[in-house]
Known about the structure:
Elements: E1 26-30, H1 36-46, E2 50-54, H2 67-80, E3 85-91, H3 102-107, E4 110-113, H4 125-137, E5 144-148, H5 156-167, E6 172-175, H6 178-186, H7 191-201, H8 214-219, H9 226-232, H10 234-240
Parallel strand pairs: 1-2, 2-3, 3-5, 4-6
Amino acid sequence: MLPGTSDPSWSNQPESLVKALDGVEGLFLLSGYADMPGLLARAREAGVRHVVLMSGGSAALEDLDNAVSRYMTLSERALRESGLLWTILRPRSFMSNAFRWLAQFEAGDVVRVPFADVPVAAIDPYDIAAVAAHALVNGGHEGRIYELTGPRALLPADQVAILGQVLGRDLRCEGLTNSEARAEMEAGMPVEYVDAFFQFFVDGTLDESEVHPTVQGVLGRPPRTFEEWAHAHADAFRTAG
């Protein structure tokens, strides 16, 4: 279920969090819940003081006509207006998005990808979690917006090549046409989200290639490389192969 859609589960029922928030002072929260103001009000009433929100780079666009930018923008606004202390994380694409290629690894050595000409400074989710934990446990991060990236921008072909080196496989990356990419994406997500990603990466409204030094600045160490991520998760790809 995508954030912001009609999810009937506990995640869109703020009242279900009352017991879970008992004694909690810090909260890590994803963007996109249907009643973000209500959720934050419940948290404040329960005694939560500080919320670390995982948003994304498109929140800076404040484009309410773009489905992805909209739910991130509105989530950030709700947090700022909540009366709670806040820290906002804006990670770029996740290195773990490479898991979407597992079925292709099982089928052969050709990986076909959308937006093949778009470089992204993807980040290891491990680093996002480390920054979030640091911000919650340590003071001095309130009222900050952290732009989070990996150490360098890579094309999909670069990521595929690195995975090939780690796995000892002769992998080849091929780009999907825009029509092929749209058909594939619409099979797995609502059209409004597909439109959002096409605006970002085909129309060029979002640049995820810029590298930010934030992970180093917050944690005192560099962010993990895609090579490190690939080695850490190599078994998943070997199983697929």
